[in-house]
Amino acid sequence: MSETKYEYPQVKYTRLTFPPAQMQQRAQEFYAWMDTRRTVREFLPDPIPEGVLEHILLAASTAPSGAHKQPWSFCVVTNPDLKRQIREAAEKEEYESYNGRMPQDWLDDLAPLGTDWRKPFLETAPALIVVFRRAYEEVNGRKKNNYYVNESVGLACGFLLAAIHHAGLGALTHTPSPMNFLSSLLNRPENERPFLLIPVGYVPENCLVPDLKRKTLDDICFIYK
Length: 225
What we know:
8 helices, alpha+beta, 4-stranded antiparallel β-sheet, single chain
């Protein structure tokens, strides 16, 4: 039998594990903590301590990716003028969406949330994280495709939101459509496409959110024994 050849050097991996009772406790505690995560649209302007966002992004970059291509770029925007430009461009697209671009079903689904085309949080949040997906890489003058790009970047965004929550900050997943203006304003290269715009910051004490209910385990889990 021929030996498997690996391009990457192989290193031993040992995962810390726990007795069943402690494993159950840790799983329950993590769920309870994550269940307190909410999408917010109000932020304090207070700056985020230095180094926090950097480690949040490092945590996001631990997500798995197709062929380990890590096809993501994270742009952190704190410049007030640039945030204003992003808000203006986003509101222009959102106004079109709320006033004729999107179907009535879309408007009906959003109506209970009380949202509209105005997006002041894009300026009040101290930081905006703009996530780009990298469709391909330029290697020695030729294009090399990345694989499972949407899936990989989606996983990284999930890790990112969990890391933001773990740090004690609030966030919003914002998807103005179309988002091409982000590529232009941030001067991103041709191989990158905007994926998600995430305002991040401290949540004010008087912040209100819709009283939403998440699906139960029976709604989402189907076990085959």
